[in-house]
Amino acid sequence: ASAPAAFDYYVQVGAFSRPEDAEQQRAKLAIMGFIAKISEREQSGRPVYRVRLGPYATREEADGMQARLGESSIEARLVRAER
């Protein structure tokens, strides 16, 4: 048996300084059939609203979603987060 993965993988499709911009991106993805979530994080003393799909248990799953987004002309990047 292999050890459980120490990471979750997300596919990030944007980081915005305004929550309404993040919501607009999330809504655009929803119309296309993708379910994304918005998470807020402070960066350099300012809030950043990240739009992400996931978590995915494996990098392969996340890579697959990133490829599907690319086919829809949506720029996305892989993000790895510790569990």
Structure description:
The protein has helices at 19-31, 59-71, and strands at residues 7-16, 37-43, 46-56, 77-82. By secondary structure, the chain is α+β, with helices and mostly antiparallel strands. It has a four-stranded antiparallel sheet. It starts with 6 loop residues before the first strand and ends with a strand.
Descriptors:
4 strands, alpha+beta, four-stranded antiparallel beta sheet, 83 residues
- Which band does the percent of strand residues land in? 35-45%
Largest sheet, if any?
4 strands, antiparallel
Could you tell me the mean pLDDT?
A: 94
Low-confidence stretches: none
The arrangement of helices and strands along the chain is: EHEEHE
Determine the N-to-C terminus distance. 19 Å
How do the strands line up in the largest sheet?
2-3-1-4
CA radius of gyration: 13 Å
Number of helices: 2
Shape annotation: flat
Q: Structural class from helices and strands?
A: alpha+beta
User: Number of DSSP strands?
Assistant: 4
Helix share bin: 25-40%
Report a brief summary of the structure:
The chain is an alpha+beta fold and 83 residues long. The protein has helices at residues 19-31, 59-71; strands at residues 7-16, 37-43, 46-56, 77-82. Helices cover 31% and strands 41% of the residues.
Topology overview:
Layout: E1 7-16, H1 19-31, E2 37-43, E3 46-56, H2 59-71, E4 77-82
Antiparallel strand pairs: 1-3, 1-4, 2-3
